[in-house]
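Next comes a concrete protein, fold included:
___
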Amino acid sequence: MPRHAHPCGADFNRGRPCRGQLIRILKQSRPNSAMRSILAVSLIPAPHWAVSSHARAFSHIFCLFWFGIWYEMCENVHMISSQRQHLIVSRLRTRGAVRITALSKELGVSAMTIRRDIAELADKGLLKRVHGGAVSTSTLLSEPLFSVKSQMDIGLKDAIAQEAVNYVQPGDVIAIGGGTTAYVFAQHLLESQQASGITILTNSIPVAELVQALESKDVEVIVTGGVITRSNSLVGPIADKVIASLRVNTVFLGTHSVSIPRGFLMPNSLEAATDMAMMDIADRTVILTDHTKWSSTSLSLFARFDQVDTVITDDGLDPDSAAKTRDLVKELVLAQQIETPDESE
């Protein structure tokens, strides 16, 4: 039987040149187990009496074709990873923060893959990792949008809010500051029995809208007025003047960052001044903040530790920070974290 020339100019009965080429590629790459098995079978030369040289030639060409496609896909993995990371950085520039679950759905990859991308970007100093996502390093000294922050650390805010409700009694006059943690607290409070007959002073537009939507005659809301910030808070001289004319039992405030031993900070100096005005009219000050705020920084100090009665955070706070904070404030409460479907992925 005449021998048929190998497409690459080699004797295909033995197939040594082609097999040698595949073996070299295999050594340079890392095929998965399934592809490795397929390639191994294709590299075994068949006896000359088992199949025709045409069949052998076809099998080797078929193998090379699919191996080429697989190899190209492997080469594209690095390109796709860099594209994902570029998109993550781009989203952070426009939004200030991103969530793992949202990126996973948008890019069609697993949450674990997004976590690895975020970890690599964090190592490069391009972002800051937070529970459930990441924030841009450029937002650490500026106030992110309310809509952005409301999607971050939902389970932590729920846990903190549930604890904070216990600090309100029916008929109380309270003040609620701006920010998403304070907003979640207002949601839980209005769903509880403690909301009966209360009056809420707030400089938060979302909190005011929340109370208004209830159309309840049992809850009264007073809005300060003032200049609107990126976090949908009302600040400035008008707000401060209205606040100074009132008196409340307890004020509940969020914070952008916690600095030991300095205190509690905000990125907006006007917002910091309005928070101080609320503290001045309150018999008791309660700070609501999740554990990630201990690792960030901001511009304006609005409260020292000795000016705060209670700090409510989640149990994700590291033991060292918890011990130092407990030494500086009258009361530190660690709320048990509530896992949400979005944040468990």
Summary: Residues 85-139 form a domain with the Arc Repressor Mutant, subunit A fold (CATH 1.10.10.10). The chain has three domains: 16-75, 85-139, 146-335.
